[in-house]
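Hello K.,

You asked for the raw outputs rather than the summary table, so here they are, unedited. I folded two proteins back to back in the same session to keep the settings identical. This is the first:
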Amino acid sequence: MKKSLLYLFAVICTMVFFTACGDDDSSSSGNWQDLSKTYEGKSVNLVMGEVAIPVDGKSVVIAASSAEKVSVTLNNIIPENKSVAIDAALKEADGTYTFTGESTVGDCVVSVNGTVKEGVASVVYTRKVTSSIVGNWSLKADAGAVYANIVTGNAQIDGMVGIVAPTVSGLIWKKVSAVNVNLPEDGIFDVSWRPIGASEDKGIGEITKMASIQYCVVDGKFMLAIDKNYVTLVTTLLGDKLKAYGISVEDIMALLVDLGGYYGLPLSMNQNGNEVAFYADKDLIVSVATLAAPILQQAITDQDIKAIVEMALQLLPNAKTLELGLNFTK
């Protein structure tokens, strides 16, 4: 069933991309001056590394200053910045113009290698993340897996907070023998885990690569960046199911940060050398808990557990400090 859903998602994503792409009827006289314009819709093709990227909502602006130099501006294409300008070298051969260049945006080096032919810009670009967050991170063993910093102001409850991290950590390690978050230089997010007793890992790498789910660091926040085209597609497909639980698409969108061509799911992080904690802060936890409440109320049948959950939902908004996440090491 999971593979069938994966294949269906792949077909849908491919349709989104090819619907946005196509031939352009415009033509140029063959002069370098004709390159200077905005390429969008049918007049642009985008590839990140080897992955085709939907072009809706994105554009490439080319400004040629000579037959050898050109400025290439990527709009809504790079998660770190809505607009990235790159100075590139320009060459021409048999009516095809080729441009190459790179620019640094925060902790990311963006490179472009593209062509313009018959009015269509084909842009291959890469992101090289240079942040210290790059690497393969493994979930801390035993009781150290869970990061919890909770202060409710209620003495009785705060006295029990100390058991939250080891208890939840124990529950995790009863299900898996390893959890890894891979943050490679190319910016594609991946996570894998090995169920207890299994000989191979499971993961979401196929989906994250196919849908170009990236990661970046913006204003000190770790962001999972998802292309707006895919977010719109998924929320449209799930709209009726969400409504059945009393959840609106607007409620979900409120959890995300607008990154131009992407929506970012923000997580706080606390890195110290080869150790890092990724965690949700109070605002995110309360928002997610509020959204999940209707689902939990229907899913939980045990009245004692339901009472505990309802009490927690009432206490969360009033907590003085509320941070919950996972601890990893390289």
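The second followed immediately with the same parameters:
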Amino acid sequence: MKLAFLSNTAPAAESGRAELVERYGHVDPADADVIVALGGDGFMLRTLHRTQELSAPVYGMNRGTVGFLMNAYSCEDLLERLAVAEEEVVNPLEMRAMDQHGTMHEALAINEVSLLRAGPQAAKLRISVDGRVRLDELVCDGCLLATPAGSTAYNYSAHGPILPIGADVLALTPIAAFRPRRWRGALLPKTVTVRFDVRDPGKRPVMADADSIQFNDIDWVEIRSDPEIRHRILFDPGHGLEERVISEQFT
């Protein structure tokens, strides 16, 4: 089995990579059967984005903090673990964002796309779903659209629902909503296109964030799930995303 080992720059991740490379060898990711990512969840997301054009699945090993997308680190028995690993496939969100200067930005998000206020005043957002205005004005610190894989991350911190991995739905979740105060968000079919229009962007600037890829001075954003892109993630048996999502709800 040909393996490619990638790591972030944290000392624990770099030392883990050196140990694994010495033991198992290393090939270019384009030639690998499996790509092994060492770090935390943030590095795992960057690795998935970086390797999305490659056919090899990604197996994460936790050398960071939370490690929700990662497996436990061990230099022992890696080939045996990979031989029995379970595969999960996730589709990212595709974001198109127009800024106030007329520049179009595009990015993919495995976890979520967030719109966040970028000034001292609350943002004012108009929300449309498949071309129909569903909420004419949301006064808030922001709003996000999360995938099932990302529903336990920022979405959960913003009191959004945890979604089963196999669910064909997305979570639309407000962040510190002021008006309408009692609006808690919505569950939407995976096939919809969600649009955010920023109201009064000059006075109330808004930034867009897609898995930590940020764009400022946003005028509007459109988001949809992209079924053509399939991220393959490997997990140790009994520790896949579905089990982790269930367990997260009982901790």
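Helices lie at 11-24, 41-50, 78-84, 154-157, 241-248.

Happy to rerun anything if the numbers look odd on your end.

Regards,
P.
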